[in-house]
Design a protein that fits this description.
seven-stranded mixed β-sheet, binds zinc ion, Metallo-beta-lactamase, Chain A, about 250 residues, alpha/beta
Length: about 250
């Protein structure tokens, strides 16, 4: 089943070949000015490309993790944890024209040369950076024993508008009301793993409520994704796409 999904997701337009000659799976979301291309890198890290733009999300893993990709015009950082934020990687992958978007807690840890190119967005704020509309969505834990991981107000999720489509990136969060209230989402990257974020049941419950056209479970190490898919259900109208996040 997983193989079928991957093959189905591969398109000629979306195929990308690494410097080493190994094809990486690229997934696509239809949009104006050509499809949005999705390249999972690892865990919470991915690349979006659309209309000549390249966006890195939570780049970690060093420059080698992005070998073959164009320098990003835009980098989104959700929060301070090491699986999302690395000043070494940011320094290595940022080009001279790269802009960043980050919450205040990340911005204050950035070296000066990156900080001066960062648009700081708090929960609920939005802005336009490199011509891309970005809205900062809250991301936080709600289960008492998990509150210590992601306290409310510190971390961001994002809604990014590309080619007339709204892409939601959850960051590390539980199934909060702000997620459940999202509207008109073409594709959603939704985290699920314990003890840090949420269960597949919580994630599926939220997805059934905000009804993205496509959902990509990510940040899902150790999670039963078939259970997630079953809980989202064939009747939900949301397509679950399982990408290769852990190689
Ligand atoms: Zn994380």
């Amino acid at each position: 089943m997983k193989t079928t999904l991957l093959i189905g997701a591969l398109t000629l337009a979306g195929a990308w070949f690494a410097a080493a000659g190994q094809p990486l799976p690229a997934d696509t979301i239809p949009a104006a000015e050509g499809p949005i291309q999705v390249f999972p890198i690892n865990h919470a890290t991915f690349v979006l490309q659309h209309g000549g733009r390249t966006i890195y999300v939570d780049p970690v893993g060093g420059e080698k993790a992005f070998a073959g990709f164009a320098k990003p015009g835009l980098i989104l950082v959700t929060h301070i944890h090491g699986d999302h934020f690395s000043t070494e990687t940011l320094t290595a992958v940022a080009g001279p024209d790269t802009k960043l978007v980050a919450p205040p807690s990340v911005a204050e840890q950035l070296p000066a040369n990156l900080k001066e190119r960062t648009t700081v967005l708090k929960n609920g704020e939005s802005g336009e950076v490199t011509g891309v509309r970005i809205q900062a969505i809250p991301a936080y834990n709600t289960t008492p024993e998990r509150l210590k991981f992601h306290p409310k107000g510190r971390d961001n999720g994002y809604v990014v508008s590309l080619g007339g489509k709204r892409i939601y990136i959850s960051g590390d969060t539980e199934d909060i009301p702000e997620m459940r209230a999202l509207k008109d989402i073409a594709a959603a990257f939704v985290c699920m793993n314990l003890p840090y974020t949420m269960t597949p049941e919580q994630a599926a419950g939220a997805v059934r409520e905000f009804k993205p056209a496509v959902v990509y479970p990510y940040h899902s190490r150790g999670t039963d994704l078939e259970l997630f898919k079953a809980k989202v259900g064939a009747d939900s109208g949301t397509e679950v796409r399982l990408l290769s996040w852990y190689k």
